[in-house]
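Review session, final week

We close the course with one last complete record, chosen because it touches almost every idea we covered. It is 50S ribosomal protein acetyltransferase, a protein from Pelagibacterium halotolerans with 182 residues. Go through it on your own first, then we will talk.
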Amino acid sequence: MAQQPEIRTQRLILRRPRLRDAPRIASLLNNFEVTKNLARVPYPYTINMAVDWLMRQKKEWSPDSITFAICDPRHGLMGFCGMHKEGSDAEIGYWLGEPYWGKGYMTEATAAVIGWYFATTGANRMVSGVFHFNRASLAIQNKLGFVQTGIGKRICLAQNTDIDHIETELTRDAFEKALETL
Ligand SMILES: CC(C)(COP(=O)(O)OP(=O)(O)OC[C@H]1O[C@@H](n2cnc3c(N)ncnc32)[C@H](O)[C@@H]1OP(=O)(O)O)[C@@H](O)C(=O)NCCC(=O)NCCS
């Protein structure tokens, strides 16, 4: 199978994860301010958890089952963005280490991954969502053309409870329109 593609943006390199990323992932993810926003990441978060997670990242990838490390030449690895299957749809998820928030990095990374996903597949929609308190993530999704489709409950491992989760979807058309104003 061909190696996972690398995506380059103006400032970022989005590449496949490597086992040697584990210490860096643990140092950025062992932060409740990050993990409280994520469904499946426990807190505290250790290097062993990062190693386990990296071992589970399959060598085989497909556009709806892929993980990109978000890197820049100055800081190295800053976070992750990936697609996974949610029912019959692809769902996008992402996180960035706290020192790198508020600089437009995730808008840049997610726009590139979504653009790649729509260019690589015949899909006309994808889904995502945010915990109800996550205004920054919702702002990114709104900028990219996502719309809200409902509210469900999702487990948050770091908070050890089910939390209201705003569900969203993005169509190919809405994304193309959103790109014109991004
Ligand atoms: C959410 C997260 C990905 C944002 O990454 P980022 O690189 O800081 O995001 P960007 O700078 O690209 O864009 C953030 C947008 O949210 C806006 N924003 C930030 N805080 C906000 C708030 N409290 N209320 C409303 N909007 C807010 C910013 O103004 C910006 O919009 P703008 O470019 O129109 O000004 C990052 O904070 C993170 O990883 N958090 C922890 C994990 C997480 O929440 N993952 C997503 C789970 S759904």
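Two points worth writing down before the exam:
The radius of gyration is 15 Å.
The domain at 7-181 is CATH 3.40.630.30 (Aminopeptidase).
Good luck, everyone.
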